[in-house]
Every structure is written in structure tokens, then in C-alpha cells.
Amino acid sequence: MAGGIFSLLGNCSELEKANCHPLVCLLCHEPYQHPCLLDCYHNFCASCLRGRASDGRLRCPLCGHPSVVRGGTGLPPVDRLLQFLVDSSADSEEDVQCANCDRCCTKAELDTMYFCNTCGQPLCASCREETHRARMFARHEIVSLSKRTKDIHKKCPLHEEPYIMFSTEKKSMLCINCFRDMQGESRAHCIDIETAYMQGCQRLDQAVMAVKELQTSTREAIVLLKAMIEEVRNSASEEEAAINSLFSRMQEQLSERKKTLLKAVQSQHEEKEKAFKEQLAHLASLLPTLQVHLVTCSAFLSSANKAEFLDLGYQLMERLQRIVKLPHRLRPAQTSKV
């Protein structure tokens, strides 16, 4: 599907028009299939990148940044966070049937559906009120359908016991047996699931704020660079007009001098415009990354339950922090004066 789409998106207008939906590949413009994460934090389908690596490196089709790829596949690792959102999106499109009354709910009614994590079954609003409020269901964990706990996050795969703790040191959930097997000093870093979830939300908020600040600075820098490119063009036009006016009044012997000056102006114009465009292209390629990750954070927060958040939230936080720390050239390196 994307075999012929691999040239760098160097044109700024192309980047601005690019589809920045967090679940759609920028190459094939289709929902992600096995999304791979490059070192520059751009995502593409595995099929769109397959066969493109050379000497253990893969150049990003969007910004050109090389990524190191290991293993025989020649592909970057699958982005677990984005795959989670893709899977969650697919789940939301499935038909849902109440386990109690067998009533099928339309997509418009999904927001009013509930899910009993204890029973592992969906409930409509009526059955949640009429049946699951009985005393025998008092200890059941009932959440909105979008926050349901998937089977892989209910129990420890090693001990088949429910998760009860979270290690802030290893960033992983623990069952009672995992906790007992830990060294004493490591136990000091364990907190309950609820506390871990609250602390994780606070840290993710801080990481999101840093990305938003970088997004604002990037947009301001792009506006400035566009204005300076226009100033370079206007300055060059004004200078060319002044030179033409000057040389029109001079003797023929000055014509060679005229050509020399015009060439110098054009050379400066092209040099400055090229430098500004290169910086602009770099910043324009940064915006889709920032936008996608901000939308990804929002989608992740609205889709993930506590266990899913703790499984993937810290990975998301670390990624946002690394993006902000990457070197970004936000200020012009030279003036627009020709």
C-alpha cells in the first residue's frame, strides 16, 4: 500500500496538510497495522517500513532522522502505547450486548454502557440500576465500558494472582507473590494501585504541560520563520530594484559590476532562504509529533483504566520527557537582511 510513498515530506505545506490523526499512518493514510516507533518519535505501519532499512539504519520518511534497527526484521519495535489505542478503538466499534437482558446497544449508546470487572460482562444502564445494585453485587467492581479491565491486566501472568501493588522503582504492577519475592529495600518502593494511579496522573499532567509549552514555542518559531522568509524576499526585491535603478543611470562600463552585485544579492537570498526553509522544515516536522502525542495522551487518559494506565503510563511519560529534551532549533541563526 505504501511501497511507493517514501520520499521525505520536505515541503512545509505538505506537512501542514498531513493527516495528524493519532491512529492513522502518515504514509498509507490508513489505520495503523502494527505501528512502529522510530527514534524521532514518528510512527508508521510495519508494512510501510518493511524493506527500507540499510546497514542497520532506517531513515524516517517524515523528517529523515536515522533510527537504529536491530534483529532480522529490519524494523523498529512495535509501539505498545499506540497499539493499545488502536486496539481500544477497535473495541469501541464492536457491537455490545448486555449480559443480563441481551439488549444490543448502538454506538450512540456506548457511553451509557457499564462493565462489571468482577463478572467480566457488559451491562446496560437499566440492568446496572435494577440488578447490579443488589447486596450480593456490593463488592463487584463496576466501571464505564471504556474503562473496563482487560484480562491481561487483571492477574499476574506468573502467579495467576490479582494485582494489588505497584512498584515505582520497576514501574510494574505486582501480585501478592511478586511482592513477597521482592528484596526488602525494593518493598519500600511499592504502593497500592490507587495511590500509584493518582501519582501517575499527576506526573503525566506535568509531562503534558511541558510538551504543550514546546508546542507553543514551535508554532511561534514557525510563524517567525515564515515572516522572515517573506522579509528576505521583500528585501531582495527592494535591493534588486535599487540596483537596477542605479545601474540604469550609469555608463555601459559598469554593467559588469551590476551583474556581480545582482548575483551576490541572489546568492544571499538563496542562501538565507534555504537556511530558513531547512529550519522551518525541521520545526514543521516536529509539530505532527507534538500534536500526535498530545492527542495520544488525551485518548490514552480517556481509554485506559487504572491498570492499563500503570502498565503504559510511565512509558508515555518518559517518551514525552525525552521529546521535550531533544535539541530543537527554535530561534533563527541569522537575520533576514540581504
UniProtKB/TrEMBL annotation:
Q: Which UniProt keywords apply?
A: Cytoplasm, Metal-binding, Zinc, Zinc-finger
Gene Ontology cellular-component terms listed:
perinuclear region of cytoplasm
- Which processes are annotated in GO (biological process)? positive regulation of membrane repolarization during ventricular cardiac muscle cell action potential; regulation of cardiac muscle contraction; regulation of heart looping
- Per UniProt, residues of the RING-type domain are 25-63
Keyword Zinc-finger in the entry? The reply is yes
Q: Give an example GO molecular function.
A: zinc ion binding
Q: Which domain of life is it from?
A: Eukaryota
Every copy of the B box-type domain together lies at 93-145
Record flagged with keyword Cytoplasm: yes
- PROSITE patterns, per database record: ZF_BBOX, ZF_RING_1, ZF_RING_2
| Pfam families per the UniProt record, alphabetical | zf-B_box, zf-RING_UBOX
Q: Where in the cell is it found?
A: Cytoplasm
Instruction: Give the protein name, as stated in the record.
Output: RING finger protein 207
Read off the lineage from the record.
Eukaryota, Metazoa, Chordata, Craniata, Vertebrata
